[in-house]
């Protein structure tokens, strides 16, 4: 049985939360952490959801950081992922909608517009995000480390268009003669999560982030909110900054 992208992400979060509850038993939860490593690294599976354009992507998430204080880290965050969606004309800028509307009227007048035709442009997407900045952690409990952070960075996306009919092919020829569009834009938001500490050097990390961006502003009318869920192994090592 196959689950939808959102069902998969929901199961991922519920399973990870259940594992955290099992590991963080009351007898171990309330002691403070005695070791907090200078360096931190993480890599894991990532689910990237942009509901406004119905784009769900999956890929890899990496983080690396240096702890300046027990409660403060400075680090780098990178993701790479791929996915598919289909863009309707209602998502386009007003001027582009007007151009497409005029084209469809001309085709209808010439008797070349199929009955009930609507514009739909399937795309495949490849996305990378790059961010750097502070992260604030709470190490009071031995089995669980909680953290929050601002999210500021840049997002890069390549959209490959796959028109399915002659009309869509003509529209794509005007939008992206090569069949691809690429864009860079800043994003902003916030995130956080928890490390379920298995040993003093190894943990299971759960990440959640919410950011806003406006990729392809020359084509898409609105910006979009994106949600990121990620899970994977995390490692801390180096000098104990608690000393």
Short note summarizing the structure:
The chain has helices at 5-23, 26-29, 94-109, 166-175, and strands at residues 37-50, 55-67, 72-88, 120-138, 144-161, 180-197, 202-213, 224-240.
Q: What average pLDDT do the residues reach?
A: 89
Give the second-level CATH assignment, the architecture. Answer: Beta Barrel
Stretches with pLDDT under 50, minimum 5 residues? 1-5, 20-25
Q: Which structural class matches the secondary elements?
A: alpha+beta
Helical residue percent?
A: 10-25%
What is the first-to-last residue Cα distance? Answer: 51 Å
Gyration radius, in Å = 23 Å
Strand content: over 45%
Explain what the structure shows:
With 243 residues, the protein is an alpha+beta fold. 20% of the residues lie in helices and 53% in strands. The protein is built from four helices and eight strands; from the N terminus they run ααβββαββαβββ. It has an eight-stranded antiparallel beta barrel. The chain is elongated, with a radius of gyration of 23 Å. The termini are far apart.
């Amino acid at each position: 049985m196959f689950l939808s992208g959102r069902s998969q992400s929901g199961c991922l979060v519920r399973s990870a939360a259940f594992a955290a509850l099992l590991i963080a038993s009351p007898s171990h939860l309330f002691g403070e952490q005695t070791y907090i490593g200078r360096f931190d690294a993480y890599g894991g599976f990532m689910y990237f959801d942009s509901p406004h354009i119905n784009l769900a992507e999956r890929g890899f998430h990496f983080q690396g950081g240096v702890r300046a204080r027990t409660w403060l880290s400075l680090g780098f965050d990178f993701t790479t992922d791929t996915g598919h969606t289909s863009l309707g004309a209602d998502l386009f800028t007003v001027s582009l909608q007007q151009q497409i509307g005029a084209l469809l009227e001309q085709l209808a007048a010439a008797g070349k517009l199929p009955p009930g035709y609507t514009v739909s442009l399937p795309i495949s997407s490849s996305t990378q995000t790059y961010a750097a900045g502070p992260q604030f952690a709470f190490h009071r409990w031995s089995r669980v480390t909680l953290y929050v952070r601002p999210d500021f960075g840049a997002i890069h996306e390549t959209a490959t268009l796959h028109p399915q009919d002659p009309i869509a092919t003509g529209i794509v020829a005007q939008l992206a003669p090569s069949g691809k569009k690429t864009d860079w834009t800043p994003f902003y938001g916030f995130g956080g999560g928890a490390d379920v500490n298995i040993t003093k050097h190894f943990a299971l990390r759960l990440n959640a982030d919410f950011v806003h961006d406006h990729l392809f502003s020359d084509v898409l009318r609105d910006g979009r909110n994106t949600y990121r869920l990620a899970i994977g192994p995390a490692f801390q090592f180096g000098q104990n900054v608690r000393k």
